[in-house]
Amino acid sequence: MQEKHNSLKQNAMDGQVQIGIWCSLGSAMTTEIVAGSGCDWLLIDGEHSPNDLLSITAQLQAVGGYPVEPVVRLPSDDSDLIKQHMDAGARNLMIPNVRNVAQAKRIIAATRYAPEGVRGYSVGHRANNFGRIKDYHANAHKNQLLFLQIECAEGLKNAADIAALDGADVLFVGPGDLSTNLGAMGNPNAEHVQQAIRQVIAAAAKSGKPTGILAPVKADADRYIEAGCKLVAVGADLGLLARGSDALMTSFGKA
User: Which of 7, 179, 210, 252 has the fewest Cβ atoms within 10 angstroms?
Assistant: First the structure.
């Protein structure tokens, strides 16, 4: 038995735009609904959502039959969390608030088996189909995609050096945190924040790496795609449900 090819990694590295949806509700049912939408990838959020290892694993199971690649965002760069979620089948990981090269190197090492890294070895887990993928450990890195989030001034300053690292596959902009950390809370369209985003795109491109961003407003998403972003999340299950239910009630005269 062979591991399923990671189409998201291949397409992103080939320069194709990949459209995603954020999954923030902590529900395997709602994540499965999103998986059937036709999106290229979805993000299971473990940072700002009520998720844990078991609920994330359930969502990975729920979307396994769909032609979509799930990405899991962890709450931190903790190497034990990285190990557990990779063993559970999260081969596409997003790590928040990466600030410098030393931190990025530790994160990359946590995703790799020795001698390249420090990921703990287990004979059988969900990621290798419970021991059925015999060459999994030697080849796991080939199907892994690592998103490193740039969300602060320090990360911005070091973005080009971070992107140059082998194993730093995608620089992903967190516009909410980046704007907040640059003194423009809630206003990622401030000119200096937009300049920072363009700086991240240029830093990644210098090393031939793609950039991603969350852009739930279509005009913003179109602008970022035009600027060179390749992995663009264009909405979230939470927002779609909230805005959809608001619009329905408004149509019946309810505030």
Answer: 252
Q: What does the DSSP assignment read for 99-111? A: -SHHHHHHHHHHT
Q: Is the full-model pTM beyond 0.90?
A: yes
Please state the φ and ψ torsions of residue 248, each to the nearest 5 degrees.
-65, -45
Determine the topology of domain 7-251 in CATH: TIM Barrel (3.20.20)
Alpha-carbon span 101 to 112, nearest angstrom? 17
Quick one: DSSP state of residue 179?
A: H
Burial class (CB in 10 A: 0-12, 13-18, 19+), 249: exposed
From 5, 48, 85, 192, the catalytic residue: 48
Residues 6+ apart with CB under 8 A from 3: 128, 129, 133, 136, 139, 140, 143
Active site residue 137: no
Residue pLDDT, tens place only, 126-167? 999 999 999 999 999 999 999 999 999 999 999 999 999 999
What is residue 18's DSSP assignment? E
Task: Report how far residue 22's alpha carbon sits from residue 74's, in angstroms, rounded to the nearest whole number.
Answer: 13
Report d(CA 90, CA 92) in Å as an integer. 6
List, for residues 182-197, the tens digit of each pLDDT value. 999 999 999 999 999 9
Length of the chain: 255
Number of CB atoms found within 10 A of residue 33's CB: 16
CA pseudo-torsion sign 25, 26, 32, 37: positive
DSSP string, 198-246: HHHHHHHHHTT--EEEE--SHHHHHHHHHHT--EEEEEEHHHHHHHHHH
Task: Give pairs for 78-81: CB < 8 Å, separation 24+.
Answer: 79/106, 79/109, 79/110, 79/118
